[in-house]
Each structure stands twice: as C-alpha cells, then as structure tokens.
Amino acid sequence: MARRRVTARLVGTVTAVLVGSGIGAFALTPASAAPVTAAVTTTVVTKAAAASCATGKYQKQVEGYLKKLGGFGAVTVDGKQSAADCAAIVKFQKRYGIQPAKGLAGPTTVDVAKRLASTKTAACKAKKSGTTFCVNLTQQTSWVMKNGKVLYKPTIVRTGYEGYRTPAGTYKINKRTKKEWSDPYEVWLPYWQRFIGGIGFHQTTTYIHDKWRGSHGCVNLLQADAKAYYSVGKIGMTVKTFGRRPGT
After folding, report:
1. Domain limits for position 173
2. Which of 61, 73, 138, 182 could covalently link to 88 via disulfide, CB atoms 3.0 to 4.6 Å apart?
3. Do 203 and 173 fall within a single domain?
4. pLDDT above 70 as % of the chain
5. Is 105 strand, coil or helix?
6. Looking at the domain assignment, is residue 196 inside a domain?
7. Which residue is catalytic, options 53, 86, 134, 202?
8. Pick from 110, 99, 145: nearest CA to 124
9. Is 166 in the same domain as 237?
10. Would you call 75 exposed, middle or buried from its count of C-beta atoms within 10 A (0-12, 13-18, 19+)?
C-alpha cells in the first residue's frame, strides 16, 4: 500500500511539473485526473491561438463593434489581441465571408463591422403587419422585418455601382426561382427574387467585398443569407430600398 501511495504522488508531481512548463504529459496523467488534462489542453490551445493571431490596425475599433453586435464571443475592448478576441473576429469574418478569416482586424473587417453596428432597423419603417425585406443602400446592409419586429438580423449586401445604381423605393417580390439565368451577363443567379425590372435579390457570383465591381443593380447576398431570404420570401412580399450607395 505504501508503494502505491508513493507512485500516485510521483505521477502527480511529474504532471504538475510538466504543466508548469507548458507541456501536456497526457500519457502520465491518471484517469482520475482527467480535469487536469482538459485544463492543460485548453491552456496549450489558447496559447497557440493567441500566438497565431496578429493585432490589426483596427483592433480596438473592431473589438468595440463586435461587442456592440454581440453573438461572436467575449471580446475585450482594449486594442490588444487575445485568444478570445481572435476567436470572435475569426467567427465574424467567416460569417460575413471576409477573406482571409485569420483574426486580423484589417480594413474590410472594420468596414463590415461598422456598417452592421451602425444599421438602425427602425429606419426601414416597415409596416406592423406582414413581412418586409429592408435594404439600406447607404450602409449596404439588409434585414427582414415581420409584423414590426426583426425576423432576420442585418447582414451585408452589395448593390449597384456607378452607372447601375439600385433604385430607392417600395416594391413587391414578383418572381422567384432557385436559379435564374441572366442573359445579359451570362451567369446563373442562385436564390433569385425579383422585385423591379431585372433587379432582385440573389447570391453573389463574385467576392462580395470587392466594392469596385459592385452589381448591375441587384442586391447581392452571401450564400447563407440568399438561402435564408429565399426560404422566407413569397410573391407579393414588400421590399423597401432606401438611401443611396456612396459613389453612385
């Protein structure tokens, strides 16, 4: 019995030393010490994550916007990159199709975060009944209201650029197809929902954050958003576009 007690103390000592040095000695950790192993794993992964994330030029601004938006994880608004900050930024970048999604708070990330954080859903002035698809042309954001409440939170869009400005107004969805062929531009438009002329919602066919290209008047959406909008949309539903895209 004495020998067993000494062995247990020895294993515990070795584990403690290795943990302190930052090395996970998982093979030497007894089954009863599983929580210690989990803690070691978390510590090692956290340190590795922090080391892989650089601090971007707009770190503090992005932290502030993400904290305001919520839903991307805990962030500390101090302008210093941490593992938690990095994880939140990466999650945000992946959600909004920002490439590369490596946690760097660069110009595209801060631009998207700022647009979303500054979007006021009440500005759509949607009716208290029915469903309204809202598009803020100035902020380049969009959301869906139902019976006066937000059904689908603001997301980013890309509308018509110079010479192809998306018009402001109130319209109705008048055609819907899961994949529409565009004769003028010879490209398929996934999750197509037309609301005026040849203009409608659809999944973007190019990198949505390439502002210089823009659209030819349509409201470009990321795949997940285009799919969600299509699942909600019906012929006759209201679409409100307001404001004006900068540069148009």
Report:
1. 121-242
2. 73
3. yes
4. 79
5. coil
6. yes
7. 202
8. 145
9. yes
10. buried
Q: Judge if 100 and 125 occupy the same domain.
A: no
218 annotated active-site: yes
- Using a 10 angstrom Cβ sphere, with 0-12 exposed, 13-18 middle and 19 or more buried, the burial of residue 227 is middle
> What is the mean pLDDT of the segment spanning 207-213?
85
Instruction: Give the chain's length.
Output: 248
Confidence of residue 52 (pLDDT cuts 50, 70, 90): low
Task: Choose the catalytic residue: 53, 124, 134, 218.
Answer: 218
Q: For the chain, what is the domain count?
A: 3
DSSP 71: S
Q: Tell me, yes or no, whether 54 lies in a domain.
A: no
Residue 175 to residue 184: CA distance in whole angstroms: 18
Q: Which amino acid is at 63?
A: E
116 φ, ψ (degrees, to nearest 5): -70, -45
Same domain, 214 and 135: yes
User: Token pair for residue 32?
Assistant: 């009863």
Question: Is the pTM of the predicted complex or chain greater than 0.85?
Answer: no
Taking a C-beta distance cutoff of 8 angstroms, is the pair 104, 126 a contact? no
